[in-house]
Amino acid sequence: MKTKDVIIVGGGLAGLTAALHLLNHGQSVVIFEKNEFPKHKVCGEYISNEVLSYLDSLGLDIASLHPKQIDTLSFSLVSGKTITAPLPLGGFGVSRYALDYYLCQEVQKRGGILHQETVVDVWFSDEVFMVTTQQKRYQSRLVMGAFGKRSNLDIKLNRRFITKPSNWLGVKAHYAVDFPDNMVGLHHFNGGYCGVSKVETNLINICYLGNYETFKKYKNTQDYQDNVVCKNPHLKALFEKARMQFEKPLTISQISFEEKKTVEEHMLMIGDTAGLIHPLCGNGMAMAIHSAKLASEVAIPFLNNKWSRTKMEEHYTESWNFNFKHRLRIGRLLGSLLQREKTASFFLQMVTLFPFLLPLLIKNTHGKPI
């Protein structure tokens, strides 16, 4: 059985980015992804410009995807009260359908191997990982976990967050409706948030997250949308005019914002597998890309026999905490505050009275250019 340098479990944004980084440095990489490419995913589809120079450094031509350039945030409460602010760094809107497929093609062009297989088990012994799929067994020196928000592997690894109840449901679809190219909207409703922004196809991506307590009273997502989400007048007006371009919305359940370990059983966790930021902060895709960079940068000296495994793992944990721990804490705090309409209203009143607060909050949930 031939040993590969790196196996990446999950071919999403973080996994594909890490693969490209490692391939650019001469490492052999195998990715296991259970889904076919291309595929739509429940995701906000807005990326902060903080990662743009890094993507350029990987030899990627993001401009070829024709993303929308976004420089303005519009935030509203259920009452309809709205505040608009410039995004300090700005960002771009591109669908996961287009972006993941482009990254997948680039990985294969550069010699990466992509298997459409489901990984059922990973274990570590004598400095080697054994990775078992539904078809066969593989081995590698290093495994990166990029299997998303929630997976059977989380259960297999007995990760702490998986034992706690996760009461969040995500819903996403693309729509045809008039909407500014340069704006990302973030709209609060009872028990959740909805993000709105345009992607490269000139359609808008509407993705909302609601808690199960508010959802369980309704028969389906449409009923919930009509009776809860559309209580926000901005969302009501939007959905009344919008024409959905999917046969039905995509959904994902049991989303967890609990803290997660960045290293589990010697696997380096990246992207949502390592930590998920509240959509209120609107920066999950940039965090996934940045985490791939951090993991790859510590993996390379290890794979080149310059660092021990212990040193690699310690450096990754330290760099993850330095770059993301504060952002995630702010995101959890804001998410908790804005679940209650009274505190949410007070928050917006304060931001209205002191407009500098919103850009300050944005800076605290976004990083500097990397």
What does this structure look like?
- The chain has 370 residues and is α/β, with parallel strands linked by helices.
- The protein has a single domain, classed as FAD/NAD(P)-binding domain.
- It is 35% helix and 28% strand.
- Strands 3, 4, 5, 10, 11, 12, 13, 14 and 15 form a nine-stranded mixed β-sheet that branches. Strands 1, 2, 6, 7, 8, 9, 16 and 17 form an eight-stranded mixed β-sheet that branches.
- Strand 11 (183-189) and strand 12 (192-198) form a beta hairpin.
- The protein is globular, with a radius of gyration of 20 Å.
- The mean pLDDT is 91.
CATH class: Alpha Beta
> Per CATH, which architecture?
3-Layer(bba) Sandwich
Kindly report the name of the CATH homologous superfamily.
Answer: FAD/NAD(P)-binding domain
**For the CA atoms, what is the radius of gyration?**
20 Å
Outline of the structure:
The protein has 370 residues and is α/β, with parallel strands linked by helices.
Features of the shown structure:
370 residues; alpha/beta; FAD/NAD(P)-binding domain; 9-stranded mixed beta sheet; globular
Architecture blueprint of SSEs:
Elements: E1 3-9, H1 13-24, E2 29-32, E3 46-48, H2 52-57, E4 68-76, E5 82-93, H3 96-109, E6 113-115, E7 119-125, E8 128-133, E9 137-145, H4 152-156, E10 168-176, E11 183-189, E12 192-198, E13 204-211, H5 212-215, H6 221-227, H7 233-241, E14 243-244, E15 250-255, E16 263-264, E17 267-269, H8 284-303, H9 309-337, H10 341-353, H11 357-365
Helix pairs in contact: 1-3, 1-8, 8-9
